[in-house]
Amino acid sequence: MPNHSQLELSRRDLLISSAATVVVTGTARGSAAAQPSGDTMKHSTSVSLAVNGERHEIEVDNRTTLLDALREHLHLTGTKKGCDHGQCGACTVLVEGRRINSCLTLAVMHDGDEITTIEGLGKPGDLHPMQAAFVKHDGFQCGYCTPGQICSSVAVLEEIKANIPSHVTGDLTAQAQLTAAEIRERMSGNICRCGAYSNILDAISEVAGIKA
Fold first, then answer.
1. Mean pLDDT, the chain, as a whole number?
2. What is the model's pTM?
3. Does domain 122-212 have CATH number 2.60.40.650?
4. Please, are residues 71 and 29 in contact by the beta-carbon 8 Å criterion?
């Protein structure tokens, strides 16, 4: 029968052996995890954006939003970053003629696309009719949401012309009508914290040729 000292030695050997096994196994796993699997991952991509009629070749982090590419890479700061969650519409731009929230899409998804920002609609002395109408009807106060409001307004009229229905379109088999209700519904994704909604409606209605 083993004596007490032999039992103590066995326990000590067991603990040492177990600890060594854990260390070796952990090191092996760590080494395996540190090894790259296949090709090295690329974290940036070269994209070609046609913005306001001008072609730009830029290298962007794959996680860069279209909004940040426009503001930080191309320095087109007319497009505003509001909520950064697609809820306020301040970042609205036109991509291939359709409005999108540029904070919710990645720049790498728009390689080759035609993009129009507020700077591309018109300039001082040569304003787009919608820009001129916003000025005439005081469709802004602080002005922060205005670029997105104007880009969205231009797209709204094109959507109605293209017979794209909204939630308030009554007859889906007929041509969508230019009404105040249609404009209000379609512009509901663009928030004006100053509350210039009635003036915005007046501006859009004038360009549309209807009574607000």
1. 88
2. 0.79
3. no
4. no
